[in-house]
Amino acid sequence: MASLVAALLVILMLNGLEPAMSQPYPNYHADFVDIDQAKNEPKWWQTGAFYQIYPRSFKDSNGDGIGDLNGIADRLPYLKELGITATWLSPIFTSPMADFGYDIANFTEIAPIFGSMSDFENLLKIAKQLNIKIILDFVPNHSSDECEWFKRSAARDPEYKDFYVWHPGKMVNGVHQPPSNWVSVFHGSAWQWHEGRKEYYLHQFVKKQPDLNYRNPKVREAMKNVLRFWLAKGVAGFRIDAVPHVFEIAPDAAGQYRDEPRNNGNNDPDDYGYLQHIYTVDQPETINLVYEWRAVLDEFKDGDERILLAETYSPIDIVMQYYGNATAEGAQLPFNFRLISDISNNSNAESYEWTILQWLQHMPKGRTANWVLGNHDQPRVGSRLGTDRIDMLNMLTTTLPGASVTYQGEELGMTNVWISWKDTVDPSACNTNPNVYEHYSRDPERTPFQWSDDIDAGFSNASKTWLPIGPSYKLINLEKERKEPLSHFNIFKQLMQLRKETKTLQVGETEVKAVNRNVLGVKRFRQHDFTYVTLLNIFDGTETVNLKDSFADLTTDMEVVLVTDKSQRKAGDFINSENLQLLPKESLILRSTSTYYTYYSNGEHRQLPIEGVYLLVAQVVLYLSYRRVLTLNSVC
Ligand SMILES: [Ca+2]
Ligand SMILES: [Ca+2]
C-alpha cells in the first residue's frame, strides 16, 4: 500500500509540474533553432550537411585533366548517397585562372573549362531532382584584371572610372612609390602601377585581382545584380569569399591612405604578417554590406529560403555580427573556423570544450551554429589533426548543434599530397621560392578526388591531371571504402543518416564538457526523447570515465549507436555510464535507454528517466490487478 501511495504521489507531483516544462533550460542556447513555424521543423539549412566541391578536382568528364560541371552532375548521386543537403562550388565563372577562378573576368558567365551555361542549368535540374541544393561562390572583393569593368576603368570610361581603388601614389625623388605600405595577402605590395591609367590600383590578393571600390554605389548595385542573376536561375545561395577584405578605409581629407602599423617580430616587408591590417580588413561598412546582400536574397520569396555562408577568420566578436543584429538579418551561417584555427594536434579535451563553447556562448540568441573541418585553403583535417582522428572529428561536427561543413575528400580520409616545386601551381606558393613554398602552398589539399584505384584514381583519363593524384589512392578511394563497414566513408554516411533521423541531434539542447583532460563529451537532450552522448578519447591512453560525474540525468545503461574502427564495441552493445573504459582514440555515440520526463528542482529544470515513471506505474497496475483478483476470489 505504501508503494501505491508513493507512486500516486510521484505521478501527481509530475503532473503538477507540467506547466514548468515550457520554461527554458538553464543552458547555452535553449532556442538555437528558430523553427520554421509553417512546417514546425527546423529550416532546411539549420541542420544541413554542407559539402564543398572544388570543381577542378572533383570529376573530369572530358579527359582534359580538369574537373568540370558535367563531372559534378555525373556524381551528384554520390552526394545523395552520402546524405548531403547542399553543396557549395568554388568559382566556376569565366576567369584567366590566375587564382584558380577566384579572379573572375565575368561574374555571370561559366568558364569554358568547366562547361557551358546549359551544363550549369542541367546540373541545377539534376540537383533539384535529387533534392540537393547548389550554392555558388560569390567573390565580391575583386574581379580579374581581364574583367571588362577593369579594362574600362583603366581607360577612365566615365561609367567605370571609379569601379576600382585607384591612386596616383607618391612621387619620391622623381620615382613613383605606392600610396601606402599595404601588403598583399599573396606577398609583396598591395599596389600595382598601371601603365595605361598612370595610377596605382589596389589588389589585396594577386595583382591580377584588382579590388573593387565598394565606396562607389554603382559597384554595390552591379554586384547585387550578380547575386540576382544566379538566384533567378535557382541557386540556393552563396558562400561569400574573403568577406573581411571587401572594404578598405576611405582616403583621408588629403586623399591619402594611411600606412598600417608594423607587427613586431616579422622583418619581411613583403610578408602579409609584416603589418597589422587595421585599415584593410574588418572595416565596419563590410558588416552592413553583408546585411544588404541578405536583403537581396530575401527578395526571392519563391521556394525554400536562400542562404549566405560568409568566409571570415575575424575575431569572434566581429564574426558574430555577420549573423545580423536587432534590425537586420545577415548571413545565416558565418563560417565557424574555430576547429581549424584554435585546435591543434596537441589540443586536449579542455581546449576542445573551450573552442566549441567560444562559438556557442558568443552566438546571438536564435542563431544557428556551424562547424567547418576543412576547405580548399587549409591543410586537410587528417594531416592537421591526425588520420586516426578523422572519424571522431566527423562524429563531433555531426552531433554538435547546427550545420556541418565538409570539404570534398575528407569523408574518405584524403590527406595532404606533397607537391614538388615544379608541379606547384598555387599563386600563393609560386609568388615565393623553392625553399619556403610549402609553407604557403594550398595545392596539397586540392588534389583530385580519389574515386577508385583506376587510372587517375577514377577522376579523369588524362595522361596528366592539373595537380598530381595523391599516391595513396590505391588505399584511400571511394570504391574500396564502400566495401569496408568501418571505413571513413561508411562512418560519415552513418553519421549523416543518424542526424537526419534523430530529432534530439537536430533540435535538442547541448552540453559540451571535458569529461577529463583527454575525453570530450557532448550531450544532446530533448524533452520526452532519448539523450545522446558523443565521446571522444582524443589521445593514445586508455581512459576510464564515469559520465554521471559530468552529465546529469543519464541512464546507467546506455546503448552504443555508432562506433569507429578504434572501438572493439559494436552498435547495439550496452555500456555502463558510471564505469566506461575507452580505448586509445576510441569515439562513440551513446543513447540513453529511456526517454525523459522533466521536473523542476532547486531553480533548475531537471530530467527523470521515464523508465522510473514506468516502473512506478507498473507497480500500481500490478497492485490494482492483485486487489481485483483478491476481490473476485472472495466473491466466489
Ligand atoms: Ca574537364
Ligand atoms: Ca577590398
TrEMBL record:
Record keywords, A-Z:
Glycoprotein, Glycosidase, Hydrolase, Signal
User: InterPro entries from the xrefs?
Assistant: GH (IPR017853), GH13_cat_dom (IPR006047), Glyco_hydro_b (IPR013780), O16G_dom_2 (IPR045857)
* One annotated GO molecular function: alpha-1,4-glucosidase activity
* Catalytic activity of the protein: Hydrolysis of terminal, non-reducing (1->4)-linked alpha-D-glucose residues with release of alpha-D-glucose
The residue range of the signal peptide is 1-22
User: Which residues are in the Glycosyl hydrolase family 13 catalytic domain?
Assistant: 52-446
Q: Which SMART domains match?
A: Aamy
Q: What class of enzyme is it?
A: hydrolase
A biological process term (GO) from this entry: carbohydrate metabolic process
| EC number, as in UniProt | 3.2.1.20
Which family does the UniProt entry place this protein in?
Belongs to the glycosyl hydrolase 13 family.
Descriptive protein name:
alpha-glucosidase
Species of origin: Drosophila albomicans (Fruit fly)
